Amino acid sequence: MQTKPYSILLAVMTLVTISCNQAEKQTEPLLAQHHDTKKHWSYHGETAPEHWAEIETHSDCNGNHQSPINIIHINADSTHFENELSFQYEPSTLIHDVENNGHSIQFDFEEGDYITYKNERYCLKQIHFHEPSEHKINGIIYPIEVHLVHTSKSGKATVLSILGKEGEESQLFEFFESFLPLKTGAKKEINQSVDLSSFLLQDRPYYSYGGSLTTPPCSENINWIVFKDPIILSVEEVLKLKSNMPINNYRNEQPLNGRVVEYHY
Fold first, then answer.
1. Domain 59-264 belongs to what topology?
2. Any signal peptide, and if so, which residues (predicted)?
């Protein structure tokens, strides 16, 4: 008779243990589902740029040297050209493929074209587009911004920013757009040569500053070169690019936080 309380206690503990194990098994799929549905950054709503630092917790998106910025010409430090920037864009360089990655249209390049910036070589890796522009000059937002991303052997990056305004047709953009439309997530091999020297960037005035990638992980210590004078392309070309990308795929303006913008002319 004395063993009954212990038997009852044992039975209760057994029931509690079973219940806890069942509860754990029931919550496991919910936890897995929560993990699998982690929000991915975008340009709209709850995953828009102002929320990137919350979503991408291990990124630099909340850093102090972020891009893009509004460049005020009168506040820039002016310097004459000192051969800091030179271009080696060859007609024979191949575009490997084009991809609609859900954030932009991106063209990936084979090794060939490169720039020399501050005595270091940076090889062209890819070109992508933002509509409207991310960088502003004197508060002006342009219809399009082209980013030419270059990397060095030491792992540093220099991004050329070319702003575009509407006007006459551009043969170079006609070439790029000949591979569109492209559905989100789709990739198309190209393996055709393109002559980027038609951008006519040599000896163009430009601004330079230290910033970041304009998409997560928003990595800082990026050399930015923003050309002062926009290129010209037709309204139809702008609209065709826009129809193949997310609407308004730009990051909002970031504070300068004491950084110096240089103007090279």
1. Carbonic Anhydrase II (3.10.200)
2. none
